[in-house]
Amino acid sequence: MGPREEQKSSIQAVVTHNPYHPDGENRAYPKEWERRLLLPDGTHIFVRPVRPDDDELFRNFAKGVSEDDTRLRFFGPKKELSDADLDRLVHIDYGRAMAFVAIEESSGKMVGVVRLHAEPNRESREFAITVRSDFKGHGLGWMLMQLIIEYARSVGLRVIEGRTLHENETMLKMCQELGFELLMDPEDASVTIVRLSLC
User: Fold this and answer.
1) What's the CA gap between 78 and 110, in Å, rounded?
2) Angle between helices 55-63 and 83-90 in degrees, nearest 10
3) E strand or H helix at 83
4) 99-110: average pLDDT
């Protein structure tokens, strides 16, 4: 299975909610990061930074993620998103974190999301990616990963990394082909740390 036949990521991360730029001012919506993508099967996808009014998009998106994919993503069973979960997902400080949502243009439905989380060390951040189960194998995960790497380099990050289950072979293969280093997690033998140097 090639890199474009990706499985939903099993990266585990914590979303940080901070609606303010570090200098105390709101960071404007970064419209310059909007993209229109064409998947190999001809599907048109609109990708843009997450917005505070995306809560319903996320709620419906979660319904399209299978229990097995949720287990791979969160290392645990599927649960319904609470209002607090949604609030953390859609409210971010664009100066410290980023999330791109992928929307199928024909239906207006969200089919994927990739994000970099706010970290105390601004030279390194943790990433996470989720693709709706019926969109696995269409190349969307590969394209979203390329976009978040491009963004990370543009803001001067030196490293991005995440954690994935050993059994998620497709995700590990994609990360390898994107240049990530694969490391054992010293705290969990079932987990692989994936790390990409951007220097």
Assistant:
1) 18
2) 120
3) helix 83-90
4) 97
